[in-house]
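Async update (no meeting this week)

Hi team, since we skipped the sync, here's where things stand on the single-chain job. The sequence we agreed to prioritize is pasted below, unchanged from the tracker. I ran it this morning and attached the output directly underneath so nobody has to dig for it. Comments welcome in thread, and please keep replies under the output.
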Amino acid sequence: MKGFVIMKVVRFSAPNTALEFAEYDLPDVLPGHVLVKVAASGVCHSDVMPATGMASSYPRVPGHEVAGTVETLGEGVSQWSAGQRVGVGWFGGACFTCTPCRRGDFVSCVVGKVTGLTTDGGYAEYLLAPADALAAIPDALAFTDAAPLMCAGVTTFNALRNSGARAGDVVAVLGLGGLGHLGVQFAAKMGFETVAIARGAEKEAFARDLGAHHYIDSTINDVAAELKKLGGARVVLATVTDAHAMSVTVPGLEPRGQLIVVGVPQEPLAVSAVDLVIGSRSVAGHASGTAKDSEDTLRFAALTGVRPMIETYPLGKAAEGYDRMMSGDARFRVVLTAD
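Output:
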């Protein structure tokens, strides 16, 4: 196909440049790979990474929240079929030979294949991906809903289901943004006594609409004290990028409770060793997940009605959609759609 079919892409030609349109030859489909026709591609705050020089090479097409259909199968690919609905997320495949992969911890693969960083991503009409990076999308999910679940969704869902919390436990979600509005929905649907923590009394009604049983306005309340009134949180899922807001929740954890960090602040966390030792509390980070984790996320969302709140832009207005997401004004995820 190469040389005969042209596809449109939106790319960064070099670090610290604006997004630009380009036309590429449709790529040859390598053995073990799948060509995906992109129907929707989410814009994530992490897309600032290829914008600022963190891609492996340039030009680079960003985008790691991809939903579409299988167009062409490479040699040796048997688990997917033409026309099948699939997604591709941050996890861009595994090497299968490094020590973490040999232990089955594929998301920790040291090769670090990342869609939109080490390979071209979803701001395009087509995407070439390793077959092991694909997740099946249920028919009940629209492509525009599935795309953000490939990153923001799997990050929050997977962190919660691997947290050790059980149905009925108090679980708090810090933040009601792109990650947090999904985290609250997942926590409530998993059967946790769900606490939403955010800034401002005006957000309480929204938090309760998402499924929160309790709301803590961090501008007027001592967050840890409020959590203690509920018996302490088994888990606080920190989705914000404010290190101080994360740190002050630690005393509100129950004994052996855990602060799970999925938002990434620029400044370091300052946590009292006393708060950790007294009560055997802990702080942990959590990576998003493998393609199978994403598939589980999609299935759970389809089953329970969890959906992202999105704003859509056609691919032709990708730069406008990117700027909207990076401004922090989007409610709450921006998704690019096929022109």
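Quick observations from my side:
The first strand starts at residue 6 and ends at 12.
Residues 143-161 form the longest helix (19 residues).
Reply here if anything looks off.
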